Amino acid sequence: MTLFGGASSSEDSSGIGNSTPTESFYYRTLNLLQEAIFLLDGKGRITFANARALQWLGGSSKDLLGRHFYECPWTIVRTIGMPFQEDTFLEKITGEEGGSFPDLEIVTASGVSFSASLKFDHIKTEDGQTSHILLSFFDETNRKKVQSYNLQLAAAINDTADAVFITSLDGNIEFVNPAFEKLTGYSLGEIRGSSPNQLKSGLQDQSFYKRLWETILKGETFRATVINKKKNGDLFHCDQTISSTKDSTGKIISFVSILKDVTEEMEMQRTLRVTSERLRSLLDNALEGIFAVYNRQVIYGNPAFFKMLGYDPDSSSSLIRVADILADRDQRNALNGILSETGKIQGEEVRLLKKDGSPFYGTLRVFAHSQNPDYLEGFLLDQTERKMIETEKDSYESILRRSQKLESIGLIAAAMIHEINNPLTIVLGYSNLLAKSLVDLKLLKYVDIISSEADRLSRLVKDLLLYAKGDGTSFERVDPYRLRDEALTLAFPLLQIEKIKVEEGQERESLPLILCQSQKIKQVLLNLLLNAKDALCTEATENKFLGIDVVGIKGESGIVEKIRFEVWDSGPGVPQFIRNTIFDAFFTAKESRGTGLGLAISKKIVESHHGSIGLAEKSGKFSRFYFELPIDCKTPI
């Protein structure tokens, strides 16, 4: 039997042979198809196989033509895994005039497996009899892969917790996933074909949506946090992402929107923000200083902390180092030791330095971070007022004890001022009258001795009263160089008479003003200068000089914390055996020329300013007395 009135199974491998031009055209067309085409006769023998079929089977038409279809080197199985029943297959394709097998798996002789579908049709003669059966196999491998991918993608979209909806190019909703339905309250049936405008809350203006459309129509992704409205009218916050989908030519065909519900996160942020603002308000208004330190640098302080230390809270936190405010090395080392051992400091009293160098007293509590010991958090309670009260109390107690010890001296001094001053005045008055009326030189000498001793006795009584009482002038800020210069001015006439040269030490430097009782400090300087003069007058030498100097003493932070005054002379020096007693009351090395109270009074004045006084030189020639005063001394001892 022939097909198209031409080639039979005995013709050449092209299947064309001596066919007519029309038949040749049909053959060539069949060979160009991507489907595998087989022609079977009524007995199931292959009469034609196109190029695609030969490619599948891996042979030539000469090997296949005339063979029964089931003798081909391949296996056909159902994709569901059931073996393919040849009898059933043959019965169907021969008994029915047309039909299909949609899910087949073809395994070739070489072991290659692919998915395929089959369509079959009967070719009939003019009298209606079946002459051939046309089998068309379609390779479904790629379609199956795409279908599998689409199924996976659809499952992912349906299972995702984020709401997803797809719109057409003109913005009408075509698909929503279950998460969208749950979030918005709209079902797919309710919202399909509608505009997403139903979700608008009215809280985004037109410029927002204009920017949205401009972005997605350019094929770019739009992202924003949006407030939308549910079906029941409730508002919800979401992070929205809109992307375009394109066809194979790059043309935009739809838009995919993903809504991530962030309502709870936004509410948590709002709550956190309110809580943070309340906490900051508490910190800002707390009376206790609160601070944080990292790597020995203050990184946070509340207003109370900066106010305590005299810093501007808006600009100074980055400038404060721990060493600037905790300048005492011994105290700092002690606190570091406690921190290293226990990880915290509980209620330690500290002395800090304020920005202007004045002292600040407080109670310190510090906690080290368990994971990072360089990070510290702490609290500082102002104890300055309490410290001042305690200091004042100690001062009063000290004065009381001193007063009790000197009670007898005070009584004697009071009696002396009453009983001695009047006779002394008379003695001094009459001695002056005698000096004016006498011409006898010997008698004049005696009168001069009487006047001199009476004057010395008067000064002794005054010094004794000053030592016992200890009160003084008010405190004021004064230039340390001014104190030095005024003391030198007072002593200069006496130094000039004795031909004593004066050295002023180092060049002047910029020193802070010192808070002190200026008259009393000048009294100390004058006393040291006159003591130096007296020491120089004990030796007959032409090269007599003394010096006076003022220097600033800096703390570890580099700030001047104390002022040091020094007075030295080129005299014989202070003997070693009296060095420990020269500041005792009534001790004198000047025999009959001193009261023994000058250095004792000077020591008392310096210590009342929280300072120290001493003798700096070694035994031997030259002596150097010094005293040091803090910059601020608002609470005298």
TrEMBL record:
<dbReference type="InterPro" id="IPR013767">
    <property type="entry name" value="PAS_fold"/>
</dbReference>
<dbReference type="Pfam" id="PF13188">
    <property type="entry name" value="PAS_8"/>
</dbReference>
<keyword id="KW-0597">Phosphoprotein</keyword>
<dbReference type="InterPro" id="IPR005467">
    <property type="entry name" value="His_kinase_dom"/>
</dbReference>
<dbReference type="InterPro" id="IPR003661">
    <property type="entry name" value="HisK_dim/P_dom"/>
</dbReference>
<protein>
    <recommendedName>
        <fullName>histidine kinase</fullName>
        <ecNumber>2.7.13.3</ecNumber>
    </recommendedName>
</protein>
<dbReference type="InterPro" id="IPR000700">
    <property type="entry name" value="PAS-assoc_C"/>
</dbReference>
<feature type="domain" description="Histidine kinase">
    <location>
        <begin position="415"/>
        <end position="633"/>
    </location>
</feature>
<dbReference type="InterPro" id="IPR003594">
    <property type="entry name" value="HATPase_dom"/>
</dbReference>
<feature type="domain" description="PAS">
    <location>
        <begin position="22"/>
        <end position="67"/>
    </location>
</feature>
<keyword id="KW-0547">Nucleotide-binding</keyword>
<dbReference type="GO" id="GO:0000155">
    <property type="term" value="F:phosphorelay sensor kinase activity"/>
</dbReference>
<dbReference type="Pfam" id="PF00512">
    <property type="entry name" value="HisKA"/>
</dbReference>
<dbReference type="InterPro" id="IPR036097">
    <property type="entry name" value="HisK_dim/P_sf"/>
</dbReference>
<dbReference type="InterPro" id="IPR001610">
    <property type="entry name" value="PAC"/>
</dbReference>
<keyword id="KW-0808">Transferase</keyword>
<dbReference type="InterPro" id="IPR036890">
    <property type="entry name" value="HATPase_C_sf"/>
</dbReference>
<dbReference type="InterPro" id="IPR035965">
    <property type="entry name" value="PAS-like_dom_sf"/>
</dbReference>
<feature type="domain" description="PAS">
    <location>
        <begin position="149"/>
        <end position="195"/>
    </location>
</feature>
<keyword id="KW-0902">Two-component regulatory system</keyword>
<dbReference type="Pfam" id="PF00989">
    <property type="entry name" value="PAS"/>
</dbReference>
<dbReference type="InterPro" id="IPR000014">
    <property type="entry name" value="PAS"/>
</dbReference>
<feature type="domain" description="PAC">
    <location>
        <begin position="220"/>
        <end position="274"/>
    </location>
</feature>
<keyword id="KW-0067">ATP-binding</keyword>
<dbReference type="Pfam" id="PF13426">
    <property type="entry name" value="PAS_9"/>
</dbReference>
<dbReference type="GO" id="GO:0005524">
    <property type="term" value="F:ATP binding"/>
</dbReference>
<dbReference type="Pfam" id="PF02518">
    <property type="entry name" value="HATPase_c"/>
</dbReference>
<keyword id="KW-0418">Kinase</keyword>
<dbReference type="InterPro" id="IPR004358">
    <property type="entry name" value="Sig_transdc_His_kin-like_C"/>
</dbReference>
